[in-house]
Amino acid sequence: MSQSNQRNQAWLLASRPEGEPVKENFRLVEQPIPELKDGEILLRTLYLSLDPYMRGRMDDSKSYAAPAQIDQPMVGGTVSEVAESKHADFKQGDVVLAQSGWQSYAVSDGSGVAKLGDLPHPSWALGILGMPGFTAYMGLMDIGQPKAGETLVVAAATGPVGATVGQLGKLKGCHVVGVAGGEEKCRYAIEKLGFSACIDHHRDDFAEQLAAACPDGIDIYFENVGGKVFDAVFPLLNTAARVPVCGLVSGYSSRELPPGPDRTPQIMGGILKRRIRMQGFIIFQDYGDHYPEFLKAMTPLVEQQKIHYREHMIEGLENAPQAFFDMLKGKNFGKTVVKVAQ
Amino acid sequence: MSQSNQRNQAWLLASRPEGEPVKENFRLVEQPIPELKDGEILLRTLYLSLDPYMRGRMDDSKSYAAPAQIDQPMVGGTVSEVAESKHADFKQGDVVLAQSGWQSYAVSDGSGVAKLGDLPHPSWALGILGMPGFTAYMGLMDIGQPKAGETLVVAAATGPVGATVGQLGKLKGCHVVGVAGGEEKCRYAIEKLGFSACIDHHRDDFAEQLAAACPDGIDIYFENVGGKVFDAVFPLLNTAARVPVCGLVSGYSSRELPPGPDRTPQIMGGILKRRIRMQGFIIFQDYGDHYPEFLKAMTPLVEQQKIHYREHMIEGLENAPQAFFDMLKGKNFGKTVVKVAQ
Asked: Any idea where the domains of chain A sit in the sequence?
């Protein structure tokens, strides 16, 4: 492959969403690929990761990371191949983990780019062996502190974080109850992932079903959705319960607070009386140093199939926005990854 | 003193409050003192502690401790003197820490009764060297984890918990900002306790004043009041802030939630994005084992006057209800203790 024959396809952030993101917020462009300077590499995107946190990056608000910039490629983690190298540390053909964003090529000076070696499934570096798996592992182990016999509830139970949290909890001897959207996902969570129960949040009697599945209350709630799942979970939290707050995907596109009454005193009163620990975390900021420890623990679990992992693979960069919208609505089934090139 | 000449004076819980407690919720009675059986002691109350948690015990709701019973003496910690003993471990004249409740005498089998030895100020066992001091110490050290240069905000800054938290934070090198009701208390917090600033929550511009006193944001908020103080603090919490939730006295008598909108998603979003740790604790349930460690650390600090301690002493058991109401409204200045007998 010679870069001169290629042009870069990129999804730019065209505008910031008001509420739910729409396709007009993105614009697909073709651009020439610049000449490499000394010390640079040209990365060809193989897989692009789509994750809920990206919704936050589309806003121009203070958060844990800088917002994506208008008229620049939308941000995102990728598995890429070094197409050309003028950098001493990389050679053509190296497969790497990078932050190329929503585009088919990117030029990099190598900072933040990590060689993946000879992984049997390179795309897993975006999921079970990457950010989502690491998030599940540290949030559950460090904040959740699971103990045998405890009840662990996890929402988005078939997503890359939830499925991993639940299976790790199972290995720790917890009674694991999942929450997912639809009967098919719930069946998968029980039959394939080994959860004790999984409740479909579309059901009218969701809260009652959840309570029935947690006869001893809830000791750990791994929070990644918020909204009505949180509302059903909160009254069931036991004394000394732990709530790692990893995500709140149900509210990412909300523009207004829900109507009253204001339940803040109720939440704070519950935290006090039931001695609940609620803690937000952002995986690489809080736990970056633990990444090697995570890989060492998780890799054999995945290889020995003690932890199952499912990808929701989308073909073609052109389909990235729709796949992203679908993921935010829970229409994915497994980790959403866009296959950009062979 | 012979018990046959004495009768027990006791404040019974006459009814449960609806909202703020009123004097009709209590009834003062005189009762005969029963004959001691073998293995029992008669305790004469010297000092009765009045604490915010007692408001919760007046309700018949699930909490961390069983509610007080109707027509039984109101519960509470006391410093008592052994007036008579048929128990091998206690002799007449021993001064002890007990849970005799709001009454002048109590018969006990000795369980939960601890000898105080020769304390220069026995009533301090109800404050700086007892439950409130222990609460301040563990909540700040274990959950708050103060580091030099950080900003610590503490409400009820001249109360027994708040004053201790702030002074301990000062010793750790924190920038300590108190919140208190009234100029006199604020002056005391700055001049006597050594806080960097103290804001009067009665001021109309309270939130602005607090923000101005915390130019680098807030790293630790020791929560013991809730309500408008929490509302002013929350937006100022820094990334990785810690919030030990020790009490919510402003809301203990609230019967209804405040009007909307419901800020729950905002609170949860803040916890996530700013990676805040919020954790409730109940001192003896969570940290009972650490009491000797606390005494060892705190006693010399108090003796060397590195930690100042102020009591709000009320004379006479008959005045206990009014003193209790005043304390819930913040009219006390220091730790509220009722002197029941010499």
From this structure: 3-126+311-339, 131-285
Of the candidates A246, A267, A286, the beta carbon closest to that of B267 is on A267
ipTM of the complex: 0.85
CATH topology agreement for domains B3-124+311-339 and B131-285:
no
* Best residue in B161, B230, B264 for a mutation probing chain A (most A CBs within 10 Å): B264
Assigned token pair, A75 = 């941000």
Domain B3-124+311-339 falls under CATH 3.40.50.1820? no
Mean pLDDT by 10 residues, chain B (342 residues): 71 95 96 94 97 91 79 96 97 95 96 87 95 96 98 95 97 97 96 97 97 98 94 96 91 81 92 95 90 92 94 97 94 95 90
Q: Which CATH class is domain A131-285?
A: alpha beta
What is the C-alpha separation between A170 and A308, in angstroms, rounded?
Answer: 12
A3-126+311-339 CATH fold: Quinone Oxidoreductase; Chain A, domain 1 (3.90.180)
CA distance A227 to chain B (A): 8
B230 → closest Cβ in A247, A258, A268: A268
Helix (H) or strand (E) holding B302: helix B291-303
CB contact under 8 A, B267 and A265: no
Q: Distance (Å, rounded) from C-alpha A60 to C-alpha A24?
A: 17
